[in-house]
Amino acid sequence: MSASNQTLAYEVSPPPALPTFPLDQWYVAALGWELNDKPVGRTLLNKPVVLFRTADGQVAALEDRCCHRALPLSSGTLDGGGLRCGYHGLLFNAAGKCIEIPGQEKIPSKAKVPMYHVQERDQIVWIWFGSSAHPEPTCEPPAYDVHSSGKYLFDGDVYHYDAPYQLIHDNLMDLSHLGYVHLRTIGGNASIHMEAKMTVESEGDVVKVVRHMPNSTPPPTYSAAYPFKGTIDRWQEIEFHVSHLRIWTGAVDANTESLDDPERGGFHMRGFHGVTPETDTTSHYFWTMATNPETNHDEVKAKVIEQTALTFDEDKVVIEAQYQNMCRFGERPMIDIHVDVGANRARKIIESLRQANGA
Amino acid sequence: MSASNQTLAYEVSPPPALPTFPLDQWYVAALGWELNDKPVGRTLLNKPVVLFRTADGQVAALEDRCCHRALPLSSGTLDGGGLRCGYHGLLFNAAGKCIEIPGQEKIPSKAKVPMYHVQERDQIVWIWFGSSAHPEPTCEPPAYDVHSSGKYLFDGDVYHYDAPYQLIHDNLMDLSHLGYVHLRTIGGNASIHMEAKMTVESEGDVVKVVRHMPNSTPPPTYSAAYPFKGTIDRWQEIEFHVSHLRIWTGAVDANTESLDDPERGGFHMRGFHGVTPETDTTSHYFWTMATNPETNHDEVKAKVIEQTALTFDEDKVVIEAQYQNMCRFGERPMIDIHVDVGANRARKIIESLRQANGA
Amino acid sequence: MSASNQTLAYEVSPPPALPTFPLDQWYVAALGWELNDKPVGRTLLNKPVVLFRTADGQVAALEDRCCHRALPLSSGTLDGGGLRCGYHGLLFNAAGKCIEIPGQEKIPSKAKVPMYHVQERDQIVWIWFGSSAHPEPTCEPPAYDVHSSGKYLFDGDVYHYDAPYQLIHDNLMDLSHLGYVHLRTIGGNASIHMEAKMTVESEGDVVKVVRHMPNSTPPPTYSAAYPFKGTIDRWQEIEFHVSHLRIWTGAVDANTESLDDPERGGFHMRGFHGVTPETDTTSHYFWTMATNPETNHDEVKAKVIEQTALTFDEDKVVIEAQYQNMCRFGERPMIDIHVDVGANRARKIIESLRQANGA
């Protein structure tokens, strides 16, 4: 080992597993309301992208680099439906073609930047990262009816993670950590979480984990949001998709309704969790939380969003500390416990898609 | 590609072009008034240098490292015309010779630090970085009469850039960016900048770009500084030298004087722009701005300096964003447009001097 | 040299000397009062360690990584005499054995983390880093009677250094720097420090430097703490041990007592200086300062501690600047002067122990 390597060993030792990403997928690029009167620059799957909304309300995505002098187009301005560079004013349309060079009549045919396929659906902006075999999308982006049905109030945010995306999957696939990490909000009694009956099913690239916690004490967020009479029958239904998770949690008064009834009442929280790799070691986490207040709609919604944000702040602290520690220690065996079944199944799907990228 | 390389790829990918620097040149090391009762430490062309003023007012420059235990001499103190290390008190003269070791009679002949050739001229401190063929200066440092003629009021500052020096040249050689980057100060109408007639001449290592913008609207800084009656005839004369640029801009009331008359009146701004590489990827930018107020001298000067500083703040944001993006994307072809003629000629001169370093 | 190396050269050039550390030694891991109701995470000799106090008051140290999902155990909580991980609640005892996995009956035999040997003695927590030949301690940790004798009031703190440990040794072994670095506190007249008679003795792995400064002016800290009548006879006795230094300084009124009398009176400051490498290039500095106020005990002690902290702040600035400069310049010869005798002898001991590690 050379002197130089020794010096750097502590600071930049490689992480234990170097994820690449499944391609031929729609990933979340933005929440719809992020794109308004300014372009948004964001690195997605190692590609610097500028996202913007054109004059007719469509979303567009280009490589975030002016072809003239390499300035990020995301520091430019929306102008006449296109995107104008903030240095010398070159104007690009949604397809990446340069349509104006101020002070110059002829526009060289090489004056263009690559475009990406993006689509907005149910207020989520999806971007296609295809393999060389599938540069064009092979399907529609996922629907997310919760945003469109009118049955829920919702809001959300984008979090940046200094951790690779699969650690976020692990966290979301195993809600048993609520009893240790989220005591102040949605946690509640730790042993009830740990001893909850759990079923794990998978079909294709989807994994579903269901846990029921009958006769629980309502955790702080639940009590604040809903007039439960006493103990509650609580559920967690987690649906893993390659680019996002849908997590339906909630509760009814204990012994009043079946947790298998899809139309059951009570207090609901429906979370959308878009997990998009930024780089091999960092991630974007796009979340929305939808709820069904019985009364005081705005107030309850605001409370649920506030508590959800607090909860996700706590997760971020844990996951980033976990990743830093993985980097410090390098690749090392890990011990599995009972709660890891769902997360491990999701990892297998990702691994198999990585192997098959573009095949 | 190894796992470790993949991880680091995003953070530290090499910039697209790795400049080295023309040698056998006088570069700006400091503005004269920076050197008073304390030494100044500054890395110049990759060399850590300590600059100071001796008891008789001369400027001096040494390697910024005590030969005893490697402390930066720039954290020491001026003492009796020399520079005393702040750890164990060794005293060095302007030639780098140790002339006192407290508590020790004999001074070893090896107790010395390398010195650099520096000269102050017209309140600019110049330093010679010679090739092995020319360790001694082969000429006098440049004169800058604007500082000494008494015709102008001026002030200036030193900016640090996280970008290589040639990106600052590019920016200064092409003032067409004023219409997009500097709308709040010296910009004015973008299309007038872009469509201005431009002439580019070069002779030896000097490039001169002249642009005239007749019948323009005065930009904010101009209106604030001078009582123009209406539209103005505006000029920009840029003179590129290897280590600095001289930019003369200004305006007269439209159709009152010839812009070719070197003695023309109106409002003048004479900029001095010393661009000195700090490292391969970072730079020092030493600027002064001189103006000729008709009335309210101090107030107009203060206004012009304030607006100039704002303008250069804007440039710094753009240029550093540009460089970061160049690092993100790696080496890639760039498209030239009409405004790049002057900058490209300057780049050719630098390239040819780099090839010839010391020849 | 490749393009990439050139770019990085300035930022991460390797330090001139890459220390590894003598093994088979007790190093300071903590000051006793740091370990109370929370675990403390600390990297020591490149190993991330979590330190904690068990229910019965004993100190314990484990590898700072949960064997389940690699979270730092130092972000967990003390629980029932053990340490509980903050993610999924695994509970470890002081020997590193997992003794509870919430929600799971069987605990796999592999569920454990490595432990380190630690012992608390005289309010200092020592940790054994043994070679493969001596994983178990071969001796008791050092005693430090100053903390236990009841003759002194003391307090202390932990400082983090961005510099390798041997630069701190150098600094402490040569107190002649007091006259240049610590003028505001314990410095006093520079030439008296530099011209003080110094004796250097060594025996085994211990080096002792003694300096006497008769008839000195009391420095600010001394005057503030003790009612000296006029000039003072001042002493400095420095005892270097591989993992720590003991520095006894003080003064009596000039010409009143022999500085060779171990029971001499006057004003005393007894410093304990634990210097423990964190990594090859960073260090922990655990210090306590003990003094013997004649009157106003608490006030004088507080004053001495405050002044000591100020003094060590000044050292930290100098040593970190020195190390950054060593990194900037790379390996280069250094010139020795008269004051370096003690420090150089300490370096020889370290070097010889490094060569012999584990032999």
Question: What features would you describe in this structure?
Answer:
3 copies of one chain form a homotrimer. Chain A folds into 2 domains: 25-129, Rieske Iron-sulfur Protein (3-layer Sandwich), CATH 2.102.10.10; 153-357, Naphthalene 1,2-dioxygenase Alpha Subunit, Chain A, domain 1, CATH 3.90.380.10. In chain A, 23% of the residues lie in helices and 32% in strands. Chain A has 7 helices and 18 strands. Chain A has helices at residues 3-12, 165-173, 178-181, 190-195, 220-225, 297-329, 341-356; strands spanning 25-31, 40-44, 47-53, 59-63, 77-79, 82-84, 91-92, 98-100, 115-116, 118-121, 124-129, 153-161, 197-203, 206-216, 232-241, 244-253, 267-277, 283-291. In chain A, strands 12-18-17-16-15-14-13 form a 7-stranded antiparallel β-sheet. A 4-stranded antiparallel β-sheet of chain A has the order 2-3-4-9, with no helix packed on it. In chain A, strands 5-6-7-8 form a 4-stranded antiparallel β-sheet, with no helix packed on it. In chain A, a hairpin with a 2-residue loop joins strand 10 and strand 11 (124-129). The model of chain A is unreliable at 1-19 (pLDDT under 50). Chains in contact: A-B, A-C, B-C. The A-C interface holds A 3-4, 6-10, 170, 174, 176-177, 179-181, 190-191, 193-195, 318, 321-322, 324-326, 328-329, 332, 334-339 and C 12, 14-15, 18, 43, 46, 48, 64-65, 67-72, 75, 84-90, 101-104, 108, 110-111, 279-281.
